[in-house]
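seq:
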Amino acid sequence: MTKSGGTFDHGASRRRLVQLAAVSSAAAAGAVASGPAHAQAPTSTLARVRAAGRMRVAALVGEPPYFVKSVATGEWSGACVEMAKDIAKILDVKLEYVDSTYGNSVIQLQTDKVDIAMSLTPTPARALSINFSRPYFLHGYGLVAPPSWSVSSWSDINKPTVKIAVDLGSTQEMAARRFAPKASITAFATRDEVMLALQTKRVDCAVFAVLLGMTAVKKNPNIGKFFMLTNPVIGLPACLAMPREDNLDFRNFLDVWVEYNRGIGQITEWLTNGMKLAGVDPEDIPPDVRL
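struct:
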């Protein structure tokens, strides 16, 4: 939310967050107060979350910087965990983490297994079945390749002699097939298989969303070096996702939440701290990558 002069109005956005949450709280309380004989189910995901006192989050196992689960304690950390905690605090509800993957989180939203997914790229196909907030981050894309390579644009890898790995059904695959259609592209079922293909030299390189590529190289330097790809620079949005429904209270609330936290730089801080969990310090982040 901006003032007429173009500056960000933090106070107005925070008031809007409180107003949206209060409306949902009143609706949920009214449904409960009407008594068992006349009680009606809350009419939106936001109202149901407030009435239940919990928000179920699709937690992506092993996906730093977004989600990291401690093997020793079972505790969750990461950028998206901090986002979920902040949303839950505003709504005054507890968090419940449900193990998930990018693909499974869409199904879990459709089947009432979770209330929110924290890091999904909206596509036209997905928009037919679930709702999305405004973007909180734009993914750039790059390449993990041998350090001896000199790569800066998609045209550098758009050649039949270049063997590229991607994970099946991902935005990485979509970007590679769109901007390097002449290359030999192999889609692997999981990202672990992509990493193995790099290690065993079955492929020359792999396309990664920028945060995932940087964390992958930091975790296993033997797979290569991360290069940003430009010409064109791709920016696909990362959004919060929620069940598709006619009542847009939850989406409206999350839109204001995103706008507010982007405006004050909080989401950038959460993403930066999440990268640190994967061993990527601020100075490791290329200057053309904006969190």
